[in-house]
Amino acid sequence: MRPPHSGAWWLWALGLAVAASRTTNPVLLAVILAVAGFVAVHCRSNAPWSSAYGMFLKFGLLVIAIRLVFSIVVGGITGPTVLFTLPEVLLPDWAKGIRLGGDVTAEGLVHALYQGLQLATLLCCIGAANALADPRRLLKSVPAALYEVSAAVVVALTVAPQLAVSARAVRRARALRGDAARGRNAIRTLLVPVLEDALDRSLHLAAAMDSRGYGRTAGLPKRTRVTTAVLVLGGLIGLCVGAYGLLDAEAPAFVGVPVLIVGVVLAVAGLVLGSRRLARTRYRPDRWTVPSVLIAASGAAAGAAAVLAEAFGELALIPSTVPLTAPEVPVVPVIGVLVALLPVLLARREALS
Amino acid sequence: MIRFEQVTIAYAEKPVLAGVDFEIPEGELCLVVGGTGAGKSTLLRAINGLVPHFTGGTLTGRVLVDGRDTAINPPRELADVVGMVGQDPVAGFVTDTVEEELAYSMESLAIPAAVMRKRVEETVDLLGLADLRDRPLASLSGGQQQRVAIGAALTAHPRILVLDEPTSALDPGAAEDVLAAVHRLVHDLAMTVVIAEHRLERVAQYADRVVWLPGSGVAPVIGDPGPVLADAPVAPPVVRLGQLAGWDPPPVSIRDARRLAGPLRERLRLLTPPVADIVPANAILTANAVSVRYGKTPAVREVTLTVSAGERVAVMGRNGSGKSSLLWALQGSGKRASGTVEVDGKDPASLKPPARRTKIGLVPQQPSDLLYLHTVAAECAQADAESGRPKGTCRALVDDLAPGIPDDIHPRDLSEGQRLALVLAIALTPRPTVLLLDEPTRGLDYPAKSRLAENLRALTRAGHAVVLATHDVEFVAEAAERVVVLADGEVVADGPVDQVVTASPVFAPQVAKVLAPQPWLTVAAVETALAAL
Fold first, then answer.
1. Per-residue pLDDT averaged across A279-308, rounded?
2. Which residues does chain A have within 8 Å of residue B80's beta carbon, measured at their own beta carbons?
């Protein structure tokens, strides 16, 4: 059994994120958090990126904490229930409307908590997608003509961890020289070897990629290559000029939409021709299998349920904080989010068969 | 299969290779030898057109690969004929899991998906990678990474495989695995293989032909391994032993040498091999139950080690057996989970870095990590300043270790041996009582290694203690008098070099294998004994 398409996991997470963005109801947000976490833990592989969810969860908690501290110090929404009072700093006239310290109310805190929770939930949705699907695999599904761009992104993604590794090695080596350098000099002693290392590495990688056939034209006539380049470049110029014409009210009418359309046509033609120019195949590409489609659909269902509920005027999505009330459970969105547990069932069934 | 026609390669008017004119037929394993900087890598990279398409420089003459001229075919167009594996396999990895890496070249060559699938399976079987196929590349050991790199070049079904120092980073066992796989390619698939290597004792026996590059633009010498290596300044000990014993042509494999060695063993039977000097037990480095952990994984487990003044100790063991971690923990810059270390009665980890290096110095695996200034002179002046030594101390040490390094040269332009000498001098400037070296012979040719061994002996005569971690069995035989073998972070053997290395077929140097059961370790020892007769 093949793992699901990585795009499916991202669509699934996007659906949950849409649901989270429609609500500040803590019950619904908690359900989304739980569903995302449960699926992430249950369906992830042993790959190195699969621990991403925990990292994003910690980050989310930090976001909630920061939001609460801000609401205590800077204030914001206030209500009648004063919990305690901080000494207030009087600001000059020009800073009117900003308050430092003063009354801290239960309403304000709860409001901040809800908003922080919403942000944290959004982060966790991204974390779940990261844990379930390698973002690099997703890049592999781009059209062939954009292959060069996606290859560059993939290489760039490996640079950051490598820089960290070589910085650690150099710092350790610096200690062997007594680490005499301080301040500006220290930056130089660290930076020079790390950058040299990074440059060396990228040269090695470029040589290796060249030796392994990267960017091969395999005997395609020069004319085709030139045509493609002209088409893509012309298309890009058209897009820029068209967008400019559309946004600038002063520009003559023909510069707007028509040029934009010509640009789009040229660029698409260039990409299509370019895809044919690049003779490349893919090893075991991700496929949209039935489980992949179901996973994506279950996420979409969660998002759709929240959006529809909002459209039909479901009030429980944004619980009132002034006055403070116990949040009600928005039934339709909660059911929608629970549908997003479907991947767990699919994984179970697969494990059984 | 590969033809060089009157090829000269020059960078900025300075010829690196000149008068290269030879042909390598199909199905041959060709070994390229020469000192550091003799142009081995340049020759290898000219085979798939990286020189001059990628590196620049001028190439005159013609290089024909499977009938194609590299002047008009850049490396990417030759990817279906030449598979290239560079010196550092990790630097050449494009993807991040084993299976995707194996498929990468095929994807570039637009090979249909079904064929790709089949070839990946074949390659996985051929190189014994079945258990590793889903693993991230970063989690593999050095030997595994090297095999994956070779596999990734093989899936494109090239007719030529070019390997630049395939075993230099590997322990003896892993090197044997990789070379066995290569040997099989030559024999079963008639692949043409070109290898450049410094550790000739590992590869010379597999070679059908040797290309010796004397360097500085002198035309290469090509021929059968034995005679060519005998004339070259770089030769494995078995060839040197053959020359000493007058075997003609000198054998390159242990098996051939052993068959000829009967009379020599007879002559040596009554002589006693030199015994390692007995060093008075005057412990200056005492480590007690030292453990190192990375997260939950233990790297070093309760190692106890005592080193006396004037002693040279080699720490050996597989890749990942904890050698480096142990050295860093002893030096005090690395972390130590538990245990105690004392140098001259002080724990180096409790000292500040400047004070620590006056007690115990370390030359790391990547010596260049220590260098960051633009000239040798500036590095030396900086070393004097940070050690609080009179001006010129470091420079004098450099001249002692490797004479003839100009002041104004950039440290990156030095050869491997010269750079090591510079870093060694920097580490020695504060006159540490104990000197630790991590894998010092990587990239060094035989003359450079002999010089390093001589330098280390001089250091211990002056009262320093030296501890070196290495895979290089020949160097250990030459430079150490005591060997500590680590496995899984534990000490499994500790004793005089002649007893420890002859007890294990993996760690035994070539001379010991040829002359077993007599415990001779180096050609020099045999030579001295015979001269005394």
1. 88
2. 213
Contact check, Cβ <8 Å, A211/B116: no
- Which chain B residues in 494-513 lie under 8 Å from chain A, judged by CB atoms? none
Domain boundaries, given as residue ranges, for chain B: 2-235, 236-270+510-533, 308-329+348-502
User: Does residue A304 contact residue A352 with C-beta atoms inside 8 Å?
Assistant: no
Q: Is the pLDDT of residue A183 over 70?
A: no
pLDDT tier at B95, thresholds 50, 70, 90: confident
What's the mean pLDDT in B363-381?
A: 87
Same domain, A131 and A156: no
Measured distance CA(A264)–CA(A230) in Å, rounded: 14
Assess whether pLDDT exceeds 60 at residue A218. no
Listed by number, the residues of chain B in 229-248 with a beta carbon closer than 8 Å to a beta carbon of chain A are none
From A55's Cα to the closest Cα of chain B, the distance in A is 17
Q: Are residues A17 and A125 in the same domain?
A: yes
- ipTM of model: 0.85
Give domain status of residue A71, yes or no: yes
Mean pLDDT score of chain A: 82
Shortest distance, CA B458 to any CA of chain A (angstroms): 22
Considering the domain architecture, whether residues A230 and A306 belong to the same structural domain is answered as no
| Burial of A54: CB neighbours in 10 Å, binned 0-12, 13-18, 19+ | middle
- Within a domain: residue A158? yes
CATH of the domain spanning B308-329+348-502: 3.40.50.300
pLDDT at residue A152 tops 80: no
Q: B9 near B51, Cβ under 8 Å?
A: yes
**Residue pLDDT, tens place only, A52-106:** 788 889 999 999 999 999 888 887 777 888 888 888 877 777 777 677 778 888 8
Q: Are residues A176 and A54 in the same domain?
A: no
- Lowest mean pLDDT segment, chosen from A10-19, B25-34, B382-391: B382-391
The tally of domains found in chain A comes to: 3
Chain A residues close to B133, C-beta within 8 Å: none
Q: Does domain B2-235 have CATH number 3.40.50.880?
A: no
A57 with A131, same domain: the answer is yes
Q: What is the pLDDT of residue B126?
A: 83
**Which residue in chain B has the smallest CA separation from A170?**
B369
- A83 and A115 in a single domain? The answer is yes
Task: Compare all CA atoms of chain B with the CA of A203 and give the residue at the minimum distance.
Answer: B91
Nearest CB to B100; choose among A174, A210, A283: A283
Structure tokens at B352: 């500040």
pLDDT for A180 beyond 60: no
Query: In terms of residue numbers, what domain contains A67?
Result: 6-139+286-352
For position B475, what pLDDT does the model report?
94
- Same domain assignment for residues A35 and A111: yes
| Interatomic CA distance for residues B371 and B436, integer angstroms | 18
Can you list the pairs that B369-372 forms with residues at least 24 positions away whose Cβ atoms lie under 8 Å?
A: B369/A169, B369/A170, B369/A172, B369/A173, B369/A193, B370/A173, B370/A174, B370/A176, B370/A177, B370/B423, B370/B426, B371/A193, B371/B411, B371/B412, B371/B419, B371/B422, B371/B423, B372/A188, B372/A189, B372/A192, B372/A193
Of residues B48, B153, B386, nearest to A180 (C-beta): B386
Please give the residue of chain B at the shortest CA–CA distance from A187.
B372
- Residue B437 touches partner A, C-beta closer than 8 Å: no
**What's the whole-number mean pLDDT along residues B77-96?**
88
Residues A10 and A108 in one domain: yes
Tens digit of pLDDT for each residue in B176-210? 888 998 998 899 889 999 999 989 999 999 999 99
- Inter-chain CB proximity A175 and B110 less than 8 Å: no
